[in-house]
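Technical note accompanying the year-one report. For the benefit of new consortium partners, we illustrate the data format agreed upon in the data management plan: each record pairs a sequence with a structure-token string. No post-processing was applied to the example shown here.
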Amino acid sequence: MKRILITGNMAGAWAARLAKPQYIPTYPITPQTEVIETLESWKANGELLDSNVHQLESEHSVLSAAIAASATGSRTYTATSSQGLLLMHEMLYIASGNRLPIVMNNISRGVSAPITLWSDHQDFLGCRDTGWILLHAKNVQEVFDFTLMAFKIAENQNILLPVMVNMDGYELSYTEEIVELPDQSDINNFLGVYQSDHNISPERKLCVGAPVMAEHYSNFRIQQFKAMENSRDVIRQVFEAYGKLTGRFYGEVDFLPAKSKTEIVLVTQGSMSTTTKYVAKKHDNVGVLNLPLIRPLPYEKIRACLSGANIVAVLDRNVAPGKGGIMISEIKDVMYHNYCHPRVLEFIVGLGGVPQTEEKINLLINKIKNEHYNLNDIEFNDVI
């Protein structure tokens, strides 16, 4: 293991470097730009010999090129953020529908208007129905680990779906932390050589993405759905294998139970999870459920973690006007199938990068304990 001090952006770049993708299409957008600057500098210095790094004219073109490269059997990586991810949106469905194991880092940034360069999760969570496997890192080490494991998950012959690994813009993308990097030889053995059984080549006449008759379209969608369901076991297996390699074992959920009886569970995503866990440890009856895996949603694990709570408070770092937060709907759907129905509260927090400090989380916990909230209202915790 090598230990280095790097940002979240550089952690994504390091994971890509060690995975040795043949093709890396790029286009800059804040706060993702450091990812491609790092890769471009390595390429210019002769440190990225196995990869073709190619800057295109837009994010739509980036994912289009990634799709074409992956269809030829090339291991493919890229990165984007916010408005760039939105410009790719049409192509997200094409990548997953054609069963192409592309790996992409998204660096979350609030979607304009108004323009912000800071993070919330609207861009990333807007992709939950595109057929991509979605992972969300809470620290820089997880950015590296999840991105590296994404290649092994995506390229499994029973899966062959693209994987997006998200990190919070600025809070992680430009924050430096100590990260452990495995040796290149260990990564080579862990990932192996990607060999596609359905790639295009001059010797292999194969049509990808052709129009189909209506009755055949359903068959493709069913296969895609089954692949996502198959990924549950594959993700567990990859997490286990990576833990044996590095000593860092991950789960489909990241649950911190309360010291005594769990009365309140805070549900979080991304970088605010570390602060929330730190604060929760000071309260005997408060647990934290961090969600590193958004698709496929690990509903059984989530249900098991929340079943013993009296109150579940979902901290949504996003807002869908006319509905509320995105993740509270997911949590309510999970808990509906359980005989135990805790009260589920919603707090909108951290929009546009507003820091989730210890003080704010303590105030939120005390508000819940003292019942200073309205069950019929969505609470914008950074505003009122």
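Partners are asked to follow this layout when depositing records. The longest strand covers residues 103-108.
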